[in-house]
């Protein structure tokens, strides 16, 4: 007990104080706009709608929105079956009530016009994210909070697409896949973000049923900085011919207690996303080069369009 309390007091010295004591500026986040209806965006929409927020889900096409709705429907049905095991009517009412909180749109600018909070979960590309936020800044209320769910890009670089006032209301809000099941959110604080906004995001994370942790705007934040180099070392183990995909996955599940092996997890995350993360870090030059060496096996799969579960094939074949 004492040792852990001591540890906390020693190691927290370097972390910036999290919270302001004033609550005058705190925001009750009710209207949320999520940009991107893919794996992550749909999950964030679901947990926010389940928590009672009014949520607008945005993507570039009706087909992408329909895909997002399909993912949410499947996941909610699963939650409903668990909550109301023997009562199909209650299951249906639960799903309908959550969907009643969700609107969809292909017009990002109008979708943010009433937003308290905007969370971006689009492709992992700095220029695309910056041009989105530059446009959203003009369309959203001045006091709306902007967040990116980026896996690997510096929040400060993305926020630079917006004026200084917005940068004080811009942070990272990093959810984990699958969002409805994973309990963590990393709240990423830049040097520019205000204490009140940071506190609002902590409160929002709890409201949607997650445990927030705080991290500076450093490559990969906490989880990915540790998890991604481990996964790439597994890919390079395969490249070297030291062991097979199946044996590496089995080894890490049975020998290290991982819920998924590194290749199953990579297929789950998306191989394009894995490659974006590693390539970005390799170019950024802030991470030890040996940790971000490319993997031949991964590069070949991505080049062939095999992106993991979402495309039907990755390290494993899901088409059968
Ligand atoms: C790339 C990034 O930037 C960051 C990342 O996200 S990295 C990826 C992080 N994610 C991981 O590491 C996932 C690792 N995998 C796992 O934890 C597990 O395999 C898993 C949770 C995905 C599935 O677990 P499982 O035991 O095979 O399946 P299952 O027993 O059906 O589910 C476990 C729980 O999650 C829930 N769950 C799983 N998927 C769900 C979904 N889509 N919707 C709702 N609930 C879900 C289940 O209901 C179950 O809940 P209870 O424990 O309360 O009963
Ligand atoms: N896949 C994962 O396990 C995790 C991914 N992330 C991050 O979340 C973000 C999204 O990742 P995924 O959901 O996996 O991607 P995805 O490929 O499943 O979905 C991205 C969605 O964004 C849409 N989109 C692209 N450009 C858009 C734009 N300008 N406006 C509106 N919609 C647009 C696409 O049509 C697609 O539906 C990325 O930044 C990724 O790094 C974070 C945590 C985990």
UniProtKB/TrEMBL annotation:
GO molecular function, one term: NAD+ binding
Residues the entry annotates as binding CoA: 75, 82, 151
Localization (cell): Mitochondrion matrix
Name listed for the protein in its UniProt record: 3-hydroxyacyl-CoA dehydrogenase
Main subcellular localisation: mitochondrion
EC number: 1.1.1.35
Superkingdom as given in the UniProt entry: Eukaryota
Residues involved in NAD(+) binding: 36-41, 59, 124, 129, 151, 177, 310
Pathway assigned to this chain's UniProt record: Lipid metabolism; fatty acid beta-oxidation
Site (Important for catalytic activity) residue list: 174
GO cellular component: mitochondrial matrix
């Amino acid at each position: 007990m004492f040792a852990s309390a001591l540890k906390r007091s020693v190691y927290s010295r370097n972390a910036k104080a999290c919270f302001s004591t004033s609550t005058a500026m705190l925001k009750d986040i009710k209207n949320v706009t999520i940009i991107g209806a893919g794996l992550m965006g749909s999950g964030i929409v679901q947990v926010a709608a389940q928590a009672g927020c009014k949520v607008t889900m945005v993507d570039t096409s009706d087909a992408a929105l329909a895909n997002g709705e399909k993912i949410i429907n499947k996941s909610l049905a699963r939650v409903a079956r668990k909550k109301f095991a023997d009562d199909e009517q209650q299951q249906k009412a639960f799903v309908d009530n959550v969907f009643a909180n969700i609107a969809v749109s292909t017009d990002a600018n109008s979708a943010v016009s009433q937003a308290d909070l905007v969370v971006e979960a689009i492709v992992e590309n700095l220029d695309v994210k910056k041009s989105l936020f530059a446009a959203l800044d003009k369309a959203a209320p001045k006091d709306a909070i902007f967040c990116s769910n980026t896996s690997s890009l510096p929040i400060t670089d993305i926020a630079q697409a917006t004026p200084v006032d917005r940068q004080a209301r811009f942070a990272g809000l990093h959810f984990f896949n699958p969002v409805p099941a994973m309990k963590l959110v990393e709240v990423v604080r830049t040097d520019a973000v205000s204490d009140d906004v940071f506190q609002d995001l902590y409160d929002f994370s709890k409201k949607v049923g997650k445990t927030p942790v705080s991290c500076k705007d450093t490559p990969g934040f906490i989880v990915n900085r540790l998890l991604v180099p481990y996964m790439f070392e597994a890919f390079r183990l395969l490249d070297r011919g030291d062991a097979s995909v199946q044996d590496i996955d089995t080894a890490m599940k049975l020998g290290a207690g991982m819920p998924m092996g590194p290749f199953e997890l990579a297929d789950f995350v998306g191989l394009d996303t894995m490659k974006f993360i590693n390539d970005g870090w390799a170019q950024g030059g802030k991470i030890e080069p040996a940790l971000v060496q490319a993997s031949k096996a991964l590069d070949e799969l991505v080049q062939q369009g095999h992106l993991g579960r979402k495309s039907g094939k990755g390290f494993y074949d899901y088409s059968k």
